[in-house]
Predict the 3D structure of the following.
Amino acid sequence: MTNIFIQLSKYIIIALMAAYTFSCFSIFTRNYEDEEKRVLIRQNVLLFLMQLLAFLTMYLSENDMRILFIYAALAVVLLAVIILYNLIYPNVSRLVVNNMCMLITSGMIMITRLSADNDSPYGSAVRQLIFVVLGAVIALIVPVLIRKLTFLDRWTYVYAAVGGAALLAVALFAQISGGARLGFEIMGINIQPSEFVKILFVFYVASSLNKSKEFKNIVITTAVAAAHVLILVLSTDLGAALIFFVVYLVMLYVATRQPLYAIAGLLAGAGAAVIGYHLFAHIQVRVEAWQDPIGTYGSSGYQVAQSLFAIGSGSWFGTGLFQGQPDMIPVAETDFIFSAIVEEMGVIYGLCLILICVSCYVMFLNIAMELRNRFYKLVALGLGTCYIFQVFLQIGGVTKFIPSTGMTLPFVSYGGSSMLSTMIMFAIIQGLYILREDEEEELEREKEAENGLGRTAARKKKKGTPKFEDVPKQRQKQRPRQKQRARTK
């Protein structure tokens, strides 16, 4: 009976994930707030049902009570995140909160499964859960800071100096790990500064381009951005260097609307890639593995080949949790976690995971387009590009679409620096969402003042006109949502 349940569970998990993913995009078609709220509640139900079923399946497979303890702790933490966000920030995007929790859940399921066979069973899962808790605490504080700190657009060179110094310290003093200098180990915890510097980098570029779009300032901004990228290249942290380069190019083009800058940037990037290939043996190894992973299976192509074998053996519906061999993939918890997920949970589940990431990016772009403050508009665009391009690099690398860059999958891969930095990015976006709401309220007040509606409303109030709160609830529920705002609380 247990074996039947384990085999059936994978199909139910996929169905729950598919239903959740469909709701991520169907919510944009809702015209009423009560309809939108029902979809968001349905998402929460699907999230916790999938979480329960996945951990129950793993418990029945391994008969280890530690799996249930990890499940209970995760469920409590994510429930607290959802409730506290709704209580403290009623105007945030609840879709982004739900997606964040779903991505964390997917990662915790696979990390728990992979860590069962480690020398310290479930140690990675417990540490990842601690990172989630720390990230959640920070994420609850950041939105109010974004709203209160009105001088963030003036710290242009502070962002550049702090970010550049952190990257330079890594390049000079960090130990080489996997062919690259990535970070430092403090009290047994690996800290990767580039994960946090990319946030400072976005703020620097947004602040500089917001001040001036003159050619002289663009040259200075480009030089500072190039210095960041060059330091990362010298550290052979090529994935981060590529993210910094693409983010800057996108922000520069959107801020200036000059195609020549984009073309010049692409040509410079292509030239730098060719030079880097000939200078660094590390790059040559990864390109060789990408070109022919089977032919180089005994050396450089082993990781990519194992990743492709895992995806192929999983097929559409996966082998089921604890029914595959994802532990055969090197560094499966970090660089190749998407392959491990697809092997045991299926290609359909993997596609849903990608679509959830895309729906987050759509929300980021929606916020960026509707913000009136140019600095915050560029920040939202930069953080969104940084997030989605990292997703592309990670999934593209493990599927042999592009050479592997060693990037983590945000919220899903194991790693404290990745988890905390992504939590901060999403919290900043939530703060910008609140600012967008404030801007719209201010705009409405300005329109009322221009049309003389303010005086009319004041006269009606004196006559005893009921306030909105006194309107029957049935009428409130039918109040249509303003389509141009596309709110997704």
